[in-house]
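Can't paste images in this forum, so I'm doing it all in text. The chain is below; anyone willing to post the predicted structure tokens underneath?
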Amino acid sequence: MPGLNLAALAEGQALAQSTGLNLQATPQMLMQSAAASHVMHSREKNVLSGALSPQTCLSRHRRNTGIIPEQAGRSKLQLPLAECHDRLLARVDAAGFSNADNSAIAAVHQVPADLNSAEF
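Text version of the structure:
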């Protein structure tokens, strides 16, 4: 699921920012590690710059990836990453990013600090 790669990149950037690491060097370091992915290489500029003109519209991405937890539920299978991804996308969608690029998932890190992470 490409969105999980984008979410991981966004979390890495949020962690780097909160600890004072160089935000320009962090993605380059990640792309030379086992964390690298095609999605990270092709979309990291969107995540870093906040350029959200759609390559893949968030609402379409959410609709398509939402099939995974739905089908898993029908099969009585738990897929915690797919379920978490779906909740993250729902949150970003509700924040007004429906028509933005799916790299808008980085916006999830711009929420009040008192948010209960147990919601995920």
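The chain has six helices and no strands. The chain has one domain: 2-110.
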